[in-house]
Amino acid sequence: MNTVPPMNTVLRTALATAERPAWQERPKPATQAAKSGTILLILAFILIPLYAVTLTSFSTQASVNIAGGLVLWPHGVTWNAYSLIISGGVVGRALLVSLGITAVGTAFSMLVTILAAYGLSRAGSLGHRTILMIMLITMFFNGGVIPLFLVVSALGGYDQYWALILPSAVSVFNIIVMRAFFSNVASDLIESARIDGASDWKILWRIVLPTSRAVTAVVALFYAVGYWNSWFNILLFMPADSAKWPLQMVMYNYVTEGMSFAGTGMTNVGATLGRQQIAPLSLQMAVVVLTVVPILIVYPFVQKHFTKGVLLGAIKGLCPRGDTC
Amino acid sequence: MIAQGGRPPSDTPRERGAPRPPCPPARPPYPPALTRDLSRGPSLRVRLRRDRSLIIMTLPALVLLVVFGYAPMIGLIMAFQQYNVYNGMLYSPWVAFANFQQLFGDPGFWHAFLNTLLLFSVQLLLFFPVPIALAVLFDSVLSRRLKALVQSVATLPHFFSWVLVITLFEQFLGGAGVIPQFLRQHGVANPIDLMTDGTTFKFLVAAQLIWKEAGWNTIVFMAALTAISPSLYEAAAVDGAGWWRRTRHITLPGLKGITILLLILNLGYALTFGFEQMLIQRGAVGPGAAEVLTTFSYIFGIQQGDYSYGAAAGLFLGMTSLILILAANKVAHLFGEDGLYRR
Question: For tag attachment on chain B, is the N or C end more exposed, with fewer CB atoms within 10 Å?
Answer without folding.
Answer: C
